[in-house]
Design goal:
Elements: H1 2-17, E1 22-25, H2 31-46, H3 60-74, E2 80-81, E3 86-90, H4 91-102, E4 116-117, E5 120-124, E6 131-141, E7 146-156, H5 168-174, E8 181-192, E9 200-207
Antiparallel strand pairs: 1-6, 2-3, 3-5, 4-5, 6-7, 7-8, 8-9
Length: 208
């Protein structure tokens, strides 16, 4: 299955890259655009999103699990305080996250990982997890709102306080005992968001 997905993704990238495109490596990107792309892709890295080709074919549980974890990690102000050890993630917040990052309208349901009860997903409060983030390595834009390229996924200790947009040289200089580790690379396809032309949504995401 992984071999098939790799071949399919490679074929999709070849088609897109054959179009007139502006291609750039990380060092060639404008700093503001680079940081914006890093932040966008880090949402999928920190939620441990696994490989898929075309989000229309993704199982519902992948969308829901992403939505729950995204809210738990990034929207503390919108969580429901259930008790000392657990928070509640609102069903509508999960659906909103999926629409924002995948461009898909869903009716969120229970998954094997997260059960939906009275429109809330009850989850342990986050804390002490390793830091995961992404950096765009290559970026290609064909002018029609489609972007393709490669991102690097890093992990660091829960106490990492460095710049997630920085370089390995910078990290080693700042704290040689806590240098983020490269743990994976993903090929991606993005398109413009149906709700906001200034944003992207993720279409394909395949580990190399």
């Amino acid at each position: 299955m992984k071999k098939f997905l790799t071949l399919l993704m490679a074929s999709l990238l070849m088609v897109v890259l054959a179009l007139p495109a502006d291609a750039a490596s990380r060092t060639e990107l404008d700093a503001a655009q680079r940081d914006k792309l890093d932040t966008f892709f880090s949402n999928f890295a920190e939620a441990h999103v696994e490989s898929f080709v075309v989000n229309n074919e993704m199982p519902m549980e992948t969308f829901v699990n992403f939505g729950v974890e995204h809210n738990l990690l990034n929207r503390h102000y919108d969580l429901v305080n259930v008790n000392e050890g657990y928070s509640g993630v609102k069903k509508e917040a999960v659906e909103a996250a999926v629409y924002k990052y995948f461009g898909r309208r869903i009716n969120a349901v229970s998954t094997d990982r997260y059960k939906l009860t009275n429109n809330l997903y009850i989850v342990p409060k986050a804390g002490g997890e390793a830091v995961r983030f992404a950096q765009v390595a290559d970026w290609n834009e064909n002018g029609d709102g489609v972007g393709t390229g490669i991102v690097n996924i890093y992990t660091a200790s829960s106490g990492f306080a460095g710049d997630t947009h920085g370089t390995e040289e910078q990290w080693r200089k700042e704290d040689p005992k806590d240098v983020p580790e490269l743990i994976g690379r993903y090929m991606f396809t993005v398109t413009r968001s149906p709700a906001d032309a200034d944003r992207y949504v993720l279409v394909d995401w395949l580990g190399k």
